[in-house]
Amino acid sequence: MQRPAPTPVRTLLVSDVHLGSKHSRAEEFLAFLREFQPDSLYLVGDFIDGWKINTGWHWSSVCDDIVAHLISLAQRGTKIRYVSGNHDAFLRNPAFRAGCLATLPRFEVEDEFVLETVAGWKFLVTHGDLFDCVENNAQWLSKGTTTIYDACLCLNRWYHKTWQHRDRNPHGVCSVLKDRVKRWIRFVSGFESKILNHARQNDCDGVICGHIHTPDIVKGNAMWYCNTGDWVENCTGLVERHDGQLHLVRRYDEDLFLRLPAQRGPMSRTFHEEVSTDTEDRELVAAGAGTSSSGYAA
């Protein structure tokens, strides 16, 4: 059956695909990727799970299809920017990065980028692990708990196949568990405050990151915090459409739409203005399940 034509969008941002892990939702991710024709694509860290190379590497033919699709997008003019994360930190090695980019000349790899939306808002795009106290001070703990977490993912998937409806999230229990753990880490380490302060120092209006596998768009401290989520538990991605609207596509929850006006000056001016109570005038709008565009995982 012929696929529908991909939707042209200005920017597509995804993180934590974890290709190489058996728990990566590679097929769903490829279906999602094929839905769009982006001018720019940001892979916001942990796209490849380098931690699995010596402990359960799982590279399927679908992973090859994903890489081939990315190369095809680049050849058709899409600018692809790869943000290194903690699971693909090997890209932070200048020698390795130079060798890798020699075969992929249309790919840019950095620890962070600045994305300016069509409406003039600037977002710092970074994975987020550099602002995580556990990753910076006790990465052995993070790696050590990965084995336990993988076992939980396997058990959750078995439970889903045996008892739950196929449209339910097969890693729903693990998603809730990980969210609780990450919330504790964010509270203890001041993760969001650190990353937003870093964005502010770079003259940005907000941050777009991944790492904690909790997709969301929230406003705080006169800044926007956007998390693209992941492709293990949640299957989510962030889309900037040509009209400037940011759309967080969430497979198992309501989509979120962020409508920002054309940039008129300092961020604080926009935030301290009185916001209309009319839902259509609000900047952040949640869409009902019926209006979600997450048909890629059907």
What's a quick, concise take on this entry?
The chain has eight helices and 13 strands.
Shape: globular
The unreliable regions are 266-281, 289-298
Strands of the widest sheet, in order across it, are: 4-3-2-1-10-11-12-13
Determine the fraction of residues in helical runs and give it as a percent range: 25-40%
Query: Mean of residue pLDDT?
Result: 79
Largest sheet: 8 strands, mixed
Count of alpha/pi helices: 8
Radius of gyration: 19 Å
| Topology pattern, helix = H, strand = E | EHEHEHEEEHHHHEEEEEEHE
- Give the class from helix and strand content and strand pairing: alpha/beta
Quantity of strands, as a count: 13
Distance between the termini: 15 Å
How much of the polypeptide forms β-strand, as a percent range? 15-25%
Tell me what you see in this structure:
By secondary structure, the protein is of the alpha/beta class. The protein is 33% helix and 22% strand. The protein has eight helices and 13 strands. The protein has helices at residues 26-33, 61-75, 94-103, 133-137, 139-163, 172-189, 191-201, 267-272, and strands at residues 7-14, 36-44, 79-83, 107-110, 112-116, 122-126, 206-209, 216-220, 223-227, 236-240, 246-250, 256-258, 284-286. The strands form two sheets. Strands 4-3-2-1-10-11-12-13 form an eight-stranded mixed beta sheet, with helices on one face. Helix 1 (26-33) packs parallel to helix 2 (61-75). The longest helix has 25 residues, at 139-163. Residues 266-281 and 289-298 have low confidence and may be disordered.
